[in-house]
Amino acid sequence: MSASEKVPSLASSAPPPSFELRKGANGLDKIVLREARGSSAEVYLYGGHVTSWKNDHGAELLFVSSKAAFKPPKAIRGGIPICFPQFGSHGSLEQHGFARNRFWRVDPVPPPIPTNTLSKAFVDLILKPSEEDMKIWPQSFEFRLRAFTFTFAYHTYLSVSDISEVRVEGLETLDYLDNLQNKERFTEQGDALTFESEVDKIYLSTPTKIAILDHEKKRTFVLRKDGLPDAVVWNPWDKKAKAMADFGDDEYKHMLCVEAAAVEKPITLKPGEEWKGRQELSAVPSSYCSGQLDPQRVLQSS
Ligand SMILES: O=P(O)(O)OC[C@H]1O[C@@H](O)[C@H](O)[C@@H](O)[C@@H]1O
Fold it and tell me: For position 275, what pLDDT does the model report?
């Protein structure tokens, strides 16, 4: 099993990429990645968890709760937790699987980064099962001669100015499973999604590109994905926000989770097979015209 997690930036040329190992909250190790033009990202080894992604101007693009605990075994609230080998409660494991509360390590000899990405700074993190993990989920993610099945999500918390001003394009008219209605299947009606109450939906067989438009910030996130057919959209709204110890009462107004995922049809790997699930996020000015879902073209021409 292989999972790729790359946050691209606008860097175009020269100075060598850098990544530093630093101490983060509560002494936990984190990787800091910087691109030549100033954008940066932080990834905690705990959970293989991206906790920060800043643009060239230093503005934070991901949401992390002011109440996030950074205390194992609790998963960090915000950023991009990795839900593996189980999404949500779709199985017998703990909610969202265990990858988000295990310690990952840096792969010292990573495979080459794909040439079609603009990103120059990157790190490959690896998670291998411990003996304890093998007891609850007896599958090796690497060389076990047996097929195994899992579900997955890059549980991405985007930072938005005001949830009531946000629109999501690319999911309209699709079927979804509604976690708020016993995972029953419905069809999304109408236009782009907007938000005025709690939402917890798994959109099925979605396009590979989804746009999240933040009118107030004049910013559009473009989420591109491969190997991950579904997309989860989650906002806890006021009541659930109040019920979560690691989430501020009003913080639901400033976040939206849009998660590249494989939930409806679990993935089965046979011996020797590899699976890649890739999510790429870009942030572009909202002068970007919806329908023209090619952030690289927008970036290059701006
Ligand atoms: O509190 P957790 O375990 O991080 O999960 C947060 C949410 O994650 C979302 O992806 C799920 O669809 C929700 O049902 C869930 O409430």
Answer: 92
What is the number of domains present in the chain?
1
Q: Which long-range contacts (CB under 8 A, 24 or more apart) does 20-26 make?
A: 21/106, 24/51, 24/70, 25/70, 26/70, 26/71
Phi, psi of 254 (to 5 degrees): -120, 20
Among 248, 71, 262, 245, CA closest to 155: 262
- Residue 37 annotated in ligand binding: no
| Domain that includes residue 273, residue range | 2-301
| Interface confidence: ipTM more than 0.95 | yes
167 annotated binding-site participant: no
Length, in residues, of the chain = 302
Cα–ligand 1 centroid distance for 105 (angstroms): 25
Are the CB atoms for 98 and 137 separated by under 8 Å?
Answer: yes
For residue 113, pLDDT over 50 is answered with yes
Residues tagged active-site: 155, 259
- The best mutation among 98, 152, 234 to test binding of ligand 1, ranked by most ligand atoms within 8 Å of the C-beta, falls on 234
What are the pLDDT digits (tens) for 243-296? 999 999 999 999 999 999 999 999 998 877 889 999 999 999 986 555 554 545
Question: Mean pLDDT highest for which of 11-15, 19-23, 141-145, 210-214?
Answer: 210-214
Using CB distances shorter than 6 Å, the residues near ligand 1 are 75, 88, 95-96, 155, 179, 200, 232, 234, 257, 259
**Residue 97's domain is classified under what CATH number?**
2.70.98.10
How far, in Å, CA of 298 to CA of 23, rounded? Answer: 36
Whole-angstrom distance, CA of residue 142 vs CA of residue 196: 43
95 annotated as ligand-binding: yes
**Between the ranges 109-123, 130-144, 149-163, where is the mean pLDDT highest?**
149-163
Interval between CA 89 and ligand 1 midpoint (Å): 9
Q: Whole-angstrom Cα distance, residue 88 to residue 95? A: 5
